[in-house]
Amino acid sequence: MLEFLAAHKPGHVEWLLLSATLFAIGLYGVLTRRNAVGILISVELMLNSAALNFVVFNRFVAPAACDGQITAIFVIAVAAAEVVVGMAIFVALFRHRGTIDVNRMNTMKD
Amino acid sequence: MMHDAALTVLFYVLGAGAILCALAVVNARRLLRAALALMFVLLASAGLYLLLGAEFLAGIQVLVYVGGIVILIVFAVMLTSAADLLEDHPSPGRMLAGAVASISFLVFAGGVFARLELAAPAPGARPPADASAIGRRLLDFGSEGYVLPFELLSLLLLAAVIGGIAVARKTPPRDQPFTSGGDAPGEVDIVLPRSQRDEPEEPRA
Amino acid sequence: MAGAAAPFALFAAAQAAPAWPVKTVAARAAEALPDHPWTAVLYMALAFAGLGALVAVLGMGLIYLERKIAARFQCRLGPMRVGPHGIFQTVADTFKLLFKEDIVPARADKTLHLLAPFLALSSTALMLGVIPYSPILQISDVNIGVLYIAAVSGLGVMGILLGGWSSYNKWSLIGAMRGAAQIISYEVSATLALLVVVMFAGTLSLSGIVASQAEGWWIWRAPVVGGIAFLIYLTASTAEINRTPFDIPEGESELTAGFHTEYSGLRFAFFFLAEFINMFVAAALTATLFLGGWMPFHIGGANAFNAVMDLVPPGVWFLGKTAFVVFVIMWFRWTFPRLRVDQLMRLEWKLLLPIGFANLALGALAVLYDLYFFPGA
């Protein structure tokens, strides 16, 4: 049992597939959600999987360096900035129009 | 060997947990639950970072993503009173389009990964044990350093904060200066869920 | 083995200081793992059982203390009936809570309503695992200790937010929104104050920070800067745990009981317990970072004096300092009136935050030019 588990240690393919799956799920969410906040949540999912990908490559390509980790930190910081602005826009939009359904934001006037 | 076995078990447990929670994120009909599931995905990712030897990053992930971004999202869900809104399921056409797009991405990515051959890292290469290596690289002025993107990032965050405040604050009446008020007690208001408000529902345009 | 051990370095990191060898429970377990796997399991089981017992005992003890101290401030006796001087009062109260009916509001979101108290309590209990109680008693010395503390303490907000929202009650929701806004605001100041100590100690590990205070505690060894950071951290962490001058999320006279209005029985007990354990954690961290943790009162170079101080065991030093800070936090409750929401926000964003930033910059200068006591040590 122990030998089996130890022999099947996840390699880079398993790790990359995991992050690709998370990315694909996020993509599905972005394409199917109608609520703007829901779309933003799905985008966060995609950003997170991208950061995971960077760390995986860091671990399997150049474990002695930390460039992948630094890029992941940048991804997290950019995600924070994105959420701040996104949320402010949604709150302002909601106050103005009473809805944040993206299907009903098809007008540029008003 | 014990460590390898534990690594395998933890990878599959955390990975499966992350994928299940991610599915909940995109399928939950209540947005608040989607946000909660997102929190669990991010926590599982922090655990995966630990497995990859990126401890500092795992800490940052929990601190910024879970402690900041998810809370902000929950706030936005409440402030836009989308919390008690039961989302309709998306139309079949949308679901199909989304499924086709994401599955084709996954197939494509899987094909690439299967052919991917990574150069074996130098034997004995270990990830740096503590945060100081990351700190040194971030503030390094040399060609390998990241000091310029780091400073640009702080500029971006500053711009985001100012932009967020400017967009979300209430526009004052014409005759009042923009800087008035802001923290007077009357201005603190919370949008209660529609069903809990006292006033009758006003028709929306 | 060596290559695979990398991910687990987190759990086995031990600071090797010559005078005060630190050995954590996790390090002992990791040591025993290759030869005696069951000993390792036993160590970890003991650690978890100890954590559980600590949560229960601390909760009951602190609630009793709070009531007694409150009574003393008001010239009352406090609980006196159950046991000598009422020491079994909280035990009786616990049993009462356990047997109470568990009510979930009819239109509440049941899953989230159930989940919220667990989230609040578990985020608190997670922090107990990294606090250095004494050189031989610490469950795990994670090498990102301070970052871990800052990260995990942020998790508790989710419990409050979800508890308030899922209760389907106006007061709960308003209390939860206030609580979340307050906690994430004051977290900023608390982190800025933590960073000052991290800069002086040069490490994120909590044991390392304690070891760095062998020549003197940072509250006075870093002149002025340490004291200001201490005051900021004490204020901000009092706000983070919703204690009285900052208890607007559950202000009785405004919001009945705030975010836990609709909770009863065991799950109310969870919220209540989380609050008191939070107070202990805040006090323990203040003691660890600024008052030397388990490190006795040392003055660099005064060896005879230090030797006298060493006669008191480290665990007692830790307990004494923590008890003192707990008392101060309880004292606040009977000294300051509750702040209004806008006053609370003004205090943080217009007062504490600018001072915190200035203090951090001054601290950086002090570290750079060795402008603190005993810099060579």
Polypeptide structure, described:
By secondary structure, chain A is mainly α. Chain A contains 4 helices and no strands. Chain A has one domain (11-104): Helix Hairpins (Orthogonal Bundle). Chain B has 205 residues and is mostly helical. Among the domains of chain B are: 1-87, Four Helix Bundle (Hemerythrin (Met), subunit A) (Up-down Bundle); 129-171. The longest helix of chain B is centred in the N-terminal third of the chain and has 26 residues, at 2-27. Chain B is globular and about 65 Å long. The N and C termini of chain B lie far apart (66 Å). By secondary structure, chain C is an all-alpha fold. Chain C has one domain. The longest helix of chain C is centred in the first third of the chain and has 37 residues, at 37-73. Chain C is globular and about 65 Å long. Chains in contact: A-B, B-C. The interface between A and B is large, with 77 and 92 residues.
Which short descriptors sum up this protein?
heterotrimer; A: 110 residues; mainly alpha; Helix Hairpins; 4 helices; B: 205 residues; Four Helix Bundle (Hemerythrin (Met), subunit A); 6 helices; globular
Which shape of chain B, going by the Cα principal axes?
globular
Shape of chain C: globular
Unreliable sequence segments of chain C: 1-18
Low-confidence stretches of chain B: 180-188
Helix/strand class of chain C: mainly alpha
Largest interface: A-B, 77 and 92 residues
Number of helices of chain B: 6
Quaternary state of the chains: heterotrimer
| Number of distinct beta strands of chain C | 0
Strand content of chain B: under 5%
The overall number of domains of chain C is: 1
Specify Rg of chain B, calculated over alpha carbons.
Answer: 23 Å
**What percentage of residues of chain B falls in helices of 4 or more residues?**
55-70%
Q: How widely separated are the two ends of chain B? A: 66 Å
Number of helices of chain C: 15
